[in-house]
Fold this protein.
Amino acid sequence: MIKILTVFSVLLALALFVCWNNKSLVVTKYQYRSKQVPEQFEGFRITQISDLQSEYFGQHQKKLLDKTAETKPDIIVFTGDLLDRNHTSYEASLEAISGLVEIAPVYYVNGNHELALPEQRMKAFYDELRQMGVNVLFDETTAVQRSKQQIHLIGISEYTLYASKTSIGRTATAYDPSVITDMVDRLTEGIGTDELTIMLTHEPQFLDAYADDKVDLVFAGHAHGGQIRLPFTEGLFAPGQGTLPKLTSGMHKKEGTTMVISRGLGNSVFPFRFLNRPEIVVVDLNRGS
């Protein structure tokens, strides 16, 4: 009986830990410093949310919305997989967005899960987002202004990322970088190299293609922090990168481009994460070299 109770207690503790590890939100803060940051944008705060995957965090997304509001963002960027193709809940996603747009302006790009859902339904869904006030950036450029200064936001859609993969064969590592670089060139045309340009995209494994002398800062998600994280690893698996991936969280630099990767919020094909709490990312812009 003692052995049975011991095993039961261990299993119960493990189950409670896994549940906490999958629903307890953590905020990770980074400082981004660049001479491209305009004077009026010193201390400008960007909160990144990614990969909700149709999950709930509290009733009516209260935990997610409260935690996001606590970060006091100037803008919110959402880097894909708001929905999940396997357990799609439009209501969970729209409740999150309806609360987020009340906190700060929201900028959004789609992810691979949105791309896998019925095209006509997604067209209506994207229209709903726009009607709610979301800035949907599907291969588009926009600007955020303060006084007479501005920073540029470009969105690389999942349509472009998918095209770069299908042109080669959709394997984890094979893609045509020219599809992405051509889009980056088009979206940054007319933007000076001395102006701050921020890219929103979903998949981080294309950093080599994102790196450009006009792209300063990239926000990405998709990798779910490697799902199961062990010490000294970036997790055990990430879509598009396979086992023992290298780009699943944190800040990474390629030449003059810095990429911030969110571990995301929800889970997808694999039902849980371990040592890898759902993450909200905060990046403060600072002037300097």
